[in-house]
Design brief:
Blueprint lengths: L1 E2 L2 E2 L2 H30 L2 H18 L8 H23 L2 H4 L5 H29 L6 H25 L14 H16 L3 H30 L5 H29 L1 H21 L3 H29 L6 H29 L6 H25 L7
Helix pairs in contact: 1-2, 1-3, 1-7, 1-12, 2-3, 2-6, 3-12, 5-6, 5-9, 5-11, 7-12, 8-11, 8-12, 8-13, 9-10, 9-11, 10-11, 10-13, 12-13
C-alpha cells in the first residue's frame, strides 16, 4: 500500500498506524488523568474519549480504496478514543469494589464486554453474509456505523450508573501540562517503596507486549498466512470472544484457590505455547484450536492483571493517576509490540513474514514470566499469591 511516499505491506502499515495511535495515548494520558484527579471529573473525560472513538468508528462508513488516508486516520482516532477512555474506566475499579471482590468484578466487566462484542459481531457478520452481493462494500460500511451507534448507546448505561465524585478543584499548579507528568513522577517515587508492585508492573509491561499484539493481529494472521475466507474468519472471531468469556470467569475462580500470580504465571506459559504453535500452524482446524486457546488466556490475563494491580496499589484518592501509570505501561508495551511485529514482518516479508513476528513475541513473554516468578517469590501479600 502506498503511504507517505513509501510502499508498505498492508498489515505492516496497519500495525504502524495503531502503534502511533497508542503512542499518542501514552503522551496524553498523564495530562488528562491528573486533571481528572484534581477536578474529580474522570467520568467526563471517559465520556469524551468514548464519543471520540465512536464517532471516528462511524466515519469509517466512508472508507474505501480511494480514501486510504482517511480510513487510516479514522482507524487510529477510534483506537485513541477506545484506549483513552480505558484509563478512566479502569480507575473506577477500586472505587466500586472492595479488595475481596476485585477479581470477580474485574472478570465480570470483561465478560460483559465479550458478550456485547459477540452480539455486535454476529449482527455485523449477518450483514456481510446475507445482504445482496451487488454492493459488497455496503455491509462493511454499515457495520462500522452500527458499531459506533452501539458504542455510544450502551455507554449511556455506564455513564448513568458509575459514581461521580463531587467537583472539588484542588489547588492548581502553574503549568498544567507539567502537572500530569509530575503526578506520574510521584507514582514512580511511591513505586520505589513498593517492590512487589514495581516487579509486577515490570512483568505486566513485558507480557503485555505479546498479549495485546496477538489480540490485535490474530485475524490478520488467518487472512495472510492461512488464506482463510470471510466465513472462516467469522468463526474464528466468535470462538475467541466466546471462549474469552469462559476464560475470564474460570481464571477468576481459579485465582481464588491458587492466587492471582500463580494463575497469571500459568497464563503466560500458555501464551508462549500459543506463539510456538502459531509459528508452525498450517491448517484451518488447528487455527480454530489455537483461537480457542487465545480466547481462554486472553480474558483471564486481562481481568487478573487489572485486579492484581488494584490489590497491590496503595489506598489513595488519586486512582486515575495510578491507573494512568498502569495504562501507560500497557500502551507503551503495545507500541513496542506492534511496531516490532510490523517491522519484522516487513523485513522478512518473503522469508517467513508474520510467522517470524509471532516467534519473536516469545522473547517478551519469557521476560514477563521471569518477573512474574520473581514477584510471586518475593511478594508479601499472601492473600493472592
Amino acid at each position: 500500500i502506498p503511504f507517505l511516499g513509501r510502499n508498505f505491506v498492508n498489515t505492516e502499515l496497519k500495525d504502524y498506524v495503531l502503534s502511533f495511535g497508542f503512542l499518542l495515548v501514552v503522551l496524553m494520558s498523564p495530562i488528562l488523568s491528573s486533571i481528572a484527579d484534581y477536578k474529580g471529573n474522570k467520568k467526563q473525560f471517559m465520556r469524551f474519549f468514548c464519543y471520540l472513538g465512536a464517532l471516528s468508528c462511524s466515519l469509517l462508513f466512508f472508507f474505501d480504496g480511494d480514501h486510504v488516508t482517511l480510513g487510516l486516520i479514522c482507524f487510529m482516532i477510534a483506537g485513541i478514543g477506545f484506549y483513552g477512555s480505558q484509563v478512566f474506566y479502569n480507575s473506577y475499579l477500586p472505587d466500586i469494589a472492595a479488595e475481596r471482590d476485585m477479581d470477580r468484578i474485574s472478570a465480570k466487566g470483561f465478560t460483559m464486554g465479550y458478550i456485547g462484542s459477540v452480539i455486535m459481531q454476529m449482527i455485523g457478520f449477518a450483514l456481510v453474509l446475507f445482504m445482496p452481493e451487488s454492493d459488497k462494500k455496503l455491509p462493511l460500511q454499515l457495520t462500522f456505523l452500527l458499531v459506533g451507534l452501539w458504542w455510544i448507546g450502551f455507554a449511556q448505561l455506564t455513564f448513568s450508573r458509575l459514581p461521580a465524585p463531587p467537583l472539588q478543584e484542588r489547588k492548581a499548579r502553574k503549568h498544567i501540562l507539567v502537572n500530569g507528568f509530575h503526578e506520574l513522577k510521584l507514582v514512580w517515587n511511591q513505586l520505589r517503596h513498593m517492590p512487589s508492585l514495581k516487579r509486577f508492573l515490570t512483568s505486566f509491561f513485558f507480557y503485555s507486549m505479546g498479549v495485546q499484539t496477538v489480540m490485535l493481529v490474530a485475524i490478520d494472521f488467518g487472512i495472510k498466512e492461512l488464506k482463510l475466507e470471510d466465513s472462516k474468519l467469522i468463526i474464528t472471531a466468535v470462538i475467541i470472544q466466546l471462549v474469552a468469556i469462559a476464560g475470564a470467569i474460570g481464571m477468576a475462580r481459579l485465582s481464588a484457590k491458587w492466587g492471582n500470580l500463580k494463575v497469571l504465571i500459568l497464563a503466560v506459559i500458555l501464551w508462549i505455547g500459543v506463539c510456538i504453535a502459531g509459528y508452525f500452524i498450517q491448517t484451518e482446524f488447528h487455527f480454530y484450536i489455537l483461537a480457542a486457546l487465545v480466547g481462554l488466556v486472553m480474558g483471564g490475563t486481562q481481568a487478573l492483571s487489572r485486579s492484581t494491580y488494584s490489590k497491590l496499589m496503595p489506598e489513595t484518592k488519586d486512582t486515575a493517576s495510578f491507573f494512568s501509570f498502569y495504562d501507560i505501561t500497557e500502551k507503551l508495551a503495545i507500541v513496542i509490540g506492534l511496531f516490532s511485529f510490523g517491522f519484522i514482518e516487513g523485513l522478512t516479508e518473503h522469508n517467513g513474514g508474520m510467522r517470524n513476528s509471532i516467534l519473536a513475541l516469545i522473547i517478551f513473554f519469557v521476560l514477563g514470566l521471569f518477573w512474574l516468578l520473581l514477584t510471586a517469590a518475593r511478594s508479601r501479600k499472601k492473600s493472592f499469591v
